[in-house]
Specification:
The complex is a heterodimer of chains A (221) and B (629). Chain A is 23% helix and 40% strand. With 221 residues, chain A is an alpha+beta fold. Chain A has two domains: 101 residues, 2-Layer Sandwich (Alpha-Beta Plaits); 112 residues, Alpha-Beta Plaits (2-Layer Sandwich), CATH 3.30.70.3190. In chain A, strands 1, 4, 5, 6, 7, 10, 11 and 12 form an eight-stranded mixed beta sheet that branches. A two-stranded antiparallel ribbon of chain A has the order 2-3. Chain A is elongated. Chain B has 629 residues and is α/β, with parallel strands linked by helices. Chain B has a domain of 50 residues. Chain B is built from 21 helices and 19 strands. In chain B, the strands form six sheets. A six-stranded mixed beta sheet of chain B has the order 2-1-3-4-5-6, covered by helices on one side. Chain B has a four-stranded parallel beta sheet with strand order 15-16-17-18, covered by helices on one side. In chain B, α9 runs parallel beside α10 and α17 packs across α18. The C terminus of chain B is likely disordered. Classes of the chains: A alpha+beta (221), B alpha/beta (629). The interface between A and B is medium-sized, with 31 and 29 residues. The complex binds iron/sulfur cluster.
């Protein structure tokens, strides 16, 4: 049967990579005595797939993975048994049965909601920061350049921002929330938005903590 | 003030592989340090990814943490980028469990696996704010202890280590802890009084209780106890039976990172008596002690349940030599199959039996097979007592090809005693013959992919406690010439030739055979910025040369000198249980090109180790031949 798990990844596990996380889950399943389905005959790999890799350094409260398990088990039981086998920093929020017909999770992620907390060298002014963001969003076009191997590519990021808002500001600390598109139509990273704000404001950001609050899925049942 | 933990977390996004420094892995033992009496930091002088794979370390970690009043925590060498950040932010070297500075532990124990990690030890002490030299340490500093194979010549690190533990650490460590409890309860709490107490334990060596002497020519003369009451020699300790001894199960840590040997290591036996004359492990871990199949099965299942690992490797110095290896593999496979766990063997003997074993193990995925003939001609293989013939090798390769393998890895040593270019040519011939064997065995249309032969050569290092401990190492120029010779001849579309960094082999020889004066060189080299010397890209050989010059010692006189059989050796006071007489006999036999059999197959050769009170189990009769010798 196919299960969908919603989980969070908190400190200090933000320092482990996506590959590390995959290993962590396959081993936790084995410790829990829940057999994963296998694919590929030559060098069989467990059938477990993640919605969208979380970059190293980010925390999240709403990640998804799908796993094919061999035995029919009650999702609640899977949640209980697996939770018992996970280290501090990963916790399972929900386990549901996924429909076999659904297309892969990865192809269905359309956008993500992020919260970024940051510190600055100069004292912050809430109105000024809000004004900067407002002006940014009013632009018809906002191009950034990306380096990919030896080629540079210019992309307009305005259509990729669903929402961007200054949430709170407190002398040397600020918090912004951003809802950003991802997937085949192009994607933008929260770090890239922060660099633009840093440049436009202008500000010197010393420390930022990026948290993914939610993944939005489209299609499926 | 920020805690070490907070400071560390703040810099981790700026370093490579931050998961090296976060701890919190599955099965980590985290105790409330306020509620324990003894804190032990187990330090591995290498980066986390390498150190985490070490079995001995896991054993001590589990065993110590099993004691209620003791907490054992892990420490690894920070990589260059992390060290720079730590120094910049004033972060002390810390343990991964509690983020406690190493200087706040009662003990800081290092494992010595390789001589080229010694500068890392000094660097770690320095990062921890602990005086580097034993004599400069105070009451509140931890006791710095060391064990592991390289500790069998303790002299090069003698100035820095308070005391050494020789042999199987799990046998001694709790006795040391008992002494510590006793010492803490007594009036005289000087460091020296504790050192005196541990010196009474068999297997413990306290370098500061001994003085080194040199002759007028600057050669090592002897090492002698300062006090009449101190024993002349230190015996290694041995675990008599592996079935009864502690093995880590619940404390088998599962790392987040993909470490070097990311799997369960099931030690099926300890020791090896094949008697290869260059091999130090062959002496140090004698005699052979096997774990019973029942015990192994029980351990395997338990560790898999506790870790969730997907692979279990049957480790030892020569795993296909386990008495009933085939039934063992089958039993483990059937017990673990349902959990989706692979059973693997790390290395193979050169024979058809091993190919059959590999077949049982690599059912689906045929990766490479590794064989170590070590030398290119029968003559030289007899000198080193590597009982492999060319026929063995060819039929083994043929069988491997027939069974579907097409990648073979071969290990050879260059610079072995008595080696000439003929022996190098022998390596080339073997490789050519194996290529021919492939063409003969597998018809063209049945070939699955291209043949690949990887040939790796290391350079012979004369190691203490081996029959070759008196032999010189070849010069740096010779190493380079021999490597060039092979590089030129081992060209071809199917061949890959790897060689070991000559300067690293040279330094390894110097330090391995070093006396106490080498401490000064290591110190100087560290001061000049040497660390991670075992990494080819980071070895700064010119600085080492400068360090030797600075101290006034010639490295060549350690590495490239033939030592007389009568001379005292800087490690003579360490007793592995194997007698010097036996080693000398083996040395003589080697020069005559005579081989010796494995005492497991034949009778006892009288090496001496089984006469040890902890062992008491000599195999069969000692042959009269050996007694005469
Ligand atoms: S004492 Fe005899 S049986 Fe024991 S390891 Fe040595 S040679 Fe082998």
């Amino acid at each position: 049967m196919k299960l969908r798990l919603k989980f969070s990844k908190e400190e200090p596990l933000k320092f482990i990579s996506h590959l590390d996380l995959q290993r962590l889950f396959t081993r936790a399943f084995r410790r829990a005595g829940i057999k994963l389905g296998l694919k590929g005959g030559f060098n069989p790999q467990p059938k477990i797939s993640f919605a969208l890799a979380l970059p190293l350094g980010c925390t999240s409260s709403g990640e998804y993975l799908e796993a094919e398990i061999v035995d029919e088990l009650n999702p609640q039981e899977v949640k209980d048994r697996l939770s018992f086998q996970l280290p501090e920093g990963i916790s399972i929020k929900e386990v549901t049965e996924a429909s076999q017909e659904d297309s892969s999770l990865t192809s269905r992620v359309s956008s993500c909601l992020y919260r970024v907390r940051f510190q600055t060298e100069e004292s912050l002014n809430v109105n000024k920061l809000k004004e900067t963001v407002k002006k940014l969003l009013q632009r018809k076009e906002l191009e950034i350049t990306r380096q990919k191997k030896k080629k540079t590519k210019k992309i307009d990021i305005i259509p990729l921002i669903e929402h961007l808002e200054v949430m709170s500001v407190n002398s040397f600390q600020g918090e912004v929330e951003m809802h950003l598109k991802t997937g085949a139509g192009g994607s933008i990273k929260p770090q890239e938005i922060m660099s633009i704000i840093e440049k436009e404001a202008p500000l010197t950001i010393t420390n930022k903590k990026i948290h993914r609050k939610k993944l939005f899925l489209e299609g499926g049942k | 003030m920020q805690s070490i933990r907070e400071k560390v977390m703040n810099i981790l996004l700026e370093v490579e592989k931050p998961a090296r420094y976060i701890g919190n892995e599955w099965n980590t033992v985290k105790k409330d340090l306020a509620r324990v009496d003894i804190k032990v930091a187990l330090a591995f002088p290498e980066v986390y990814d390498l150190g985490m794979s070490h079995l001995g370390f896991k054993i001590l970690y589990g065993l110590l943490n099993q004691q209620e009043d003791i907490a054992a925590e892990r420490v690894y060498a920070p990589w260059f980028d992390m060290e720079a950040k730590m120094r910049d932010q004033g972060i002390s070297l810390f343990s991964l469990e509690s983020f406690l500075s190493v200087k706040d532990f009662d003990f800081l124990g290092f494992t010595l696996q390789y001589e080229l990690t010694y500068t890392n030890i000094l660097n770690m002490l320095d990062l921890g704010g602990i005086p580097l030299k034993s004599e400069d340490r105070h009451r509140e500093d931890p006791f710095v202890i060391a064990g592991g194979p390289s500790a069998f010549n303790p002299e090069p690190m003698a100035e820095f280590i308070d005391f050494y533990v020789l042999g199987d650490g799990e046998e001694v460590i709790l006795e040391i802890m008992d002494k510590y409890r006793e010492w803490k309860g007594q009036e005289d709490k000087s460091r020296k009084s504790f050192l005196k107490m541990v010196a009474e334990l068999p297997g413990v060596y306290v370098p500061s209780f001994y003085q080194d002497y040199y002759d007028t020519g600057g050669n090592f003369e002897k090492l002698a106890p300062l006090d009449a009451g101190t024993s002349q020699v230190t015996q290694k300790r041995m675990v008599p039976s592996l079935d009864e001894v502690f093995y880590p199960v619940k404390s088998w840590i599962v790392p987040y990172l993909d470490i070097v040997h990311d799997r369960v290591m099931l030690e099926i036996f300890r020791g090896c008596t094949r008697g290869c004359r260059f091999c130090q492990a062959g002496t140090l871990y004698r005699p052979v002690r096997e774990r019973s199949p029942e015990k192994l099965k029980e351990l395997a299942c338990q560790i898999i349940d506790e870790t969730g690992y997907e692979e279990i490797s049957l480790t030892s110095l020569s795993s296909s030599d386990y008495s009933n290896i085939q039934p063992l593999i089958r039993e483990l496979q059937s017990a673990l199959k349902d959990k989706g766990v692979r059973v693997t063997l790390p290395s193979l003997r050169v024979d058809s039996f091993s190919v059959q074993l590999a077949k049982v193990i690599q059912k689906l995925k045929k990766s490479s097979l590794t064989f170590a003939p070590e030398a290119g001609t029968q003559r030289l293989r007899d000198v080193i007592n590597k009982n492999v013939s060319e026929e063995n090798l060819m039929s083994t390769a043929g069988e491997a090809f027939r069974e579907g393998w097409n990648h073979i890895k071969l290990y050879f040593m260059i610079g072995l005693p008595t080696e000439t270019d003929e022996d190098l040519e022998g390596i080339v011939n073997i490789v050519k013959k194996i290529v021919g064997q492939f063409k003969n065995t597998v018809v063209e249309k049945e070939r699955k992919g291209r043949l690949k032969i990887t040939i790796s050569t290391s350079t012979f290092v004369p190691k203490p406690h081996t029959p070759f401990q008196w032999e010189p190492q070849i010069s740096l120029e010779e190493m380079k010439r021999k490597q060039r010779y092979l590089r030129d001849k081992l060209r071809g579309r199917n061949l890959i030739y790897n060689w070991h960094n000559p300067e690293a082999s040279f330094l390894e020889a110097v330090i391995s055979r070093g006396d106490r004066r080498i401490s000064k060189v290591i110190y100087k080299a560290w001061e000049m910025g040497c660390r991670f010397d075992g990494w080819d890209n980071y070895l700064k050989f010119d600085r080492w040369q400068e360090a030797f010059k600075n101290v006034g010692l010639e490295p060549e006189s350690y590495a490239n000198r033939k030592v007389s059989l009568e001379a005292n050796l800087p490690w003579d006071h360490i007793n592995t249980g194997v007698s010097k007489k036996f080693l000398a006999k083996q040395y003589k036999l080697s020069l005559e090109g005579k081989t010796t059999s494995d005492c497991r197959d034949q009778c006892c050769l009288g090496c001496g180790v089984c006469e040890h009170p902890e062992i008491n189990e000599v195999k069969g009769e000692i042959s009269t031949d050996e007694i005469k010798a």
